[in-house]
Amino acid sequence: MQTIKTLGLFITLGASLLACAEATDIASDEAPPASPEVTVSSASLQIEQAERILDRRGDVEEAARILAEVRRGSGMSREEESAATIAQSRVHEARGETEASVAIVEDALRQSSEWPREARSKLRQRLEQLLVDEEHKPSYLVQPHKPDPPFSHALVPYFPKNEEGTVMMRLFLIGGDSATSDRLGTFDIGRAMRTEAEKACPLCDHDISLSRSVSGSNWVVIPESTEDFASSMVVFYYDLEHNRIPDRYGDLLPISLETVKAELALGKSFTVAKERPGAPPILLIAAPRTHLIAEAEEKVSQLDHLPTALEELDVSTKLRSDEIQAIMRASWMPHIRACYETLLKRAPQASGRFSTFFSIGADGRVSDVEPSTDDRPLQDGAFLDCIVKAAQEVTFPPTDGTTTVRYPVVVTPD
After folding, report:
1. The whole model's pTM is what?
2. Residue 320 DSSP symbol
C-alpha cells in the first residue's frame, strides 16, 4: 500500500486557489520550463573558433571580429547567446578592459530569467571567475564526479565524424522534455566522447567538434519534420494521456502501435529502438501515464546498450503527489467551493481547517472518504456530506495498488 501523508490546499472565496503540497514521502524536482526549439546555425562553430583563438593567446582582435559577426546574425539559441557573451567577456579581459568584461556578463544575467538552466549557470560561473580575488581562490578545485549516463556512450558509434572532422547531431524529442534529457544527460554524446577520449589518452588535447541541435515538440511537428527525421535521431515519448501519437504516424515508431498500446494497457513502461543504415536510431520511450515518462527516461539513461528489442523498464505505476493534486484541483475543488458557499449561507462567518481521508483503489475509484475537523463552524452535517459526495465522484488513473491520502484544506470567507 502506498501512503501519501499530506496534500493541502488553501481556499479563499472570491480569490484564486492557492495550493501547497506536502507529500513528504514522494520527492519531486521543480519542473523547469520547456526549452524552445533550437535553431540550426553556424554560430556555435564561430564562437568555438573565437574561443580557440583566446585559449592559445592568439589575435584578440580576430576573435573580437568573429564574435561581432556572430552577434550581427540572427537565430542564435540561448545557449549560443550565453557562450558568445562569455567569449566576448574574455575578449574584454584580454584587452585589459576589466569593467567591460564584468558588465557584459552582468547585463546578460539580468536578461536571462527565461534562459535554460545550463546557460545561466555558465554565465554565473564566468562572473564568479571574474570577481573572486586571485588570493582567495584555492590552488586547486576538486569537482564532484558525476558519471556519464551509460546510454550516452551507447549512442556514440551512431554519430561518426564527417569529412571536416565534426560530429553532427540533430535530435528530435517528440513529446518529451529537453530539460529532463539535459538534466539526465541521456543524449549528451559530446560529454561521452570526451570521456572516452580522456580514457584513451589522459594528457592529450580532447577538442571535440560537435554541432548539436535539439528540437522538442509534441507529435504535431511530425508532418513538417519527416524529411529531417531521415538524418536525425528521433525519440518518441508515448503515454496513454497527453502523448498519444495518432495512428496515421504509427509507422514511424520502432514497433507497431498495437503492440505499444497493448503493453501500456498492462501498466508496463518500456523502451525499444530501431537501427537504420547510415543514420542515427529511432527510439521509443513509453509509459502508461505522462507523469511516469521522466522516470522511464531516467531508466533508459542507465542502459549500457541500444535496446533493439522491447525492453521493460522498472517504473512503478503508483500515483505521484503532483498527479493527485492536479486531479483534486480539477475535479474536487470546484465542488468543495460550492459546498462551502452553501455553508456560508447558513453560517456567514464559518471558516477553519478540515482534512479529508480517503483511499484510491487500483481501479482509480475513491472510497473510505472520511472528513474530519476540530473547527466547530465546519462540523456541519450537510457540509461534510457534501465533501464526501464530491470526493466519491473523483476518479484517478489505474495503478498497481491502493493509495491512502490525507488532504487538508483551509477555508475562509473573502
Report:
1. 0.63
2. P
DSSP code of residue 15: S
- Find all residues with CB under 8 Å of 305, minimum gap 6, and list them: 154
Non-local CB neighbours of 342 within 8 Å, separated by 6+ positions = 382, 383, 386
The upper half-sphere exposure of residue 133, i.e. CA atoms within 13 Å in the direction of its Cβ, equals: 2
Distance in angstroms (rounded) separating the CA atoms of residues 66 and 175: 37
* Closest C-alpha to 271, from 280, 282, 115: 282
Q: Give the list of residues 6+ apart from residue 285 with CB closer than 8 angstroms, or none.
A: 176, 235, 236, 237, 238, 271, 293, 296, 297, 300
Residues in the chain: 414
pLDDT tens figures, 35-54: 333 223 477 778 888 888 88
Whether the CB-CB separation of 62 and 52 falls below 8 Å is answered with no
CB atoms under 10 Å from CB of 101, counted, come to 20
**Percent of the chain residues topping a pLDDT of 70:** 86
Instruction: Tell me, rounded to whole angstroms, the distance of Cα 101 from its chain centroid.
Output: 32
46 forms beta bridges with none
Of 154, 155, 169, 162, nearest in space to 44 by CA: 169
Tell me how far apart the alpha carbons of residues 222 and 229 are, in angstroms, rounded to a whole number.
Answer: 9
Q: Which of 401, 244, 352, 390 is nearest to 10 (CA)?
A: 352
Contacts of the segment 343-347: beta carbons below 8 A, 24+ positions apart: 343/378, 343/380, 343/382, 343/383, 344/13, 344/413, 346/380, 347/377, 347/380
Whole-number Å distance between alpha carbons of 302 and 280: 19
65, with CB counted inside 10 A (0-12, 13-18, 19+), is middle
